[in-house]
Each structure stands twice: as C-alpha cells, then as structure tokens.
Amino acid sequence: xxxxxxxxxxxxxxxxxxxxxxxxxxxxxxxxxxxxxxxxxxxxxxxxxxxxxxxxxxxxxxxxxxxxxxxxxxxxxxxxxxxxxxxxxxxxxxxxxxxxxxxxxxxxxxxxxxxxxxxxxxxxxxxxxxxxxxxxxxxxxxxxxxxxxxxxx
Length: 153
Fold this sequence. Notes:
Largest sheet: 4 strands, mixed
Structural class: alpha+beta
Radius of gyration: 22 Å
C-alpha cells in the first residue's frame, strides 16, 4: 500500500509539473511593440510608466504596432479622521486613461485605476517618502496592467 501511494504521488507530481502553465506577465515573447507614447498629466507617474514601457518599444517585424496616449491623474484624499478632525489615513489613487491605436487604425480607450492607503506619520518627511514609494509601486502596476491588456487583446 505504501508503494502505491508513493508511485501515485510521483505520478501526480510529474503530471502537474508538465502541465504547460506559464505566467502571462513573465513570458518574454510578445507579438506586439509600442511605437509612439504620448504622455499627459502627472509628470512623476508618467516618467515611471514610460520607464517600464520602454522595453516594449523594440520593433518586431511580424508584431502589431500600438501607439499609446496616456493621461494620468493622481489624487490624495483623506480616508478617515480622528475625533479632533485630524486626518488618520489617506487614500492615494492613480487613474490613467490609455488610448490604444493599433497599426494606425483602431483606437480603443481603457481606464486603469490603482489605489493604496497610507497612515499619517508624525514626521511629514516619512509620510512623503512613503507616499512616493506607493506612487512608484502603483505606477509600476499600472504599466503592467497596460502590457497585460495588450497581450490579451
């Protein structure tokens, strides 16, 4: 009985490891490239997104060409207050509207939104550094959302 369990475990392990699953975002073979990128809105968010999209600007002979127009907005709102009316938490929201133009023909529009919460710090410099870190992370995730959208269409 022990041998049957061991054999079935090894068989199951082999079967699952060879199922062919690969994560979509780690696949480097893409069938598109990004031609022009036009940016408008928040400068800090745009520069981070542009840095992450640069590696997809390499020309592919048989790939579809996408021209992007990105309009970004950054909002910081008070999420909740204490009894005295002082802010306790903030919500940071980055919203980007992306216009995709495929091979100079079809224009589609997609909106991507990412949010994060920040607790108020005693020292404002620590709070600002934390806000910058979240802004950078959210912008990176938004650029990954753009690439995921292009891969799946």
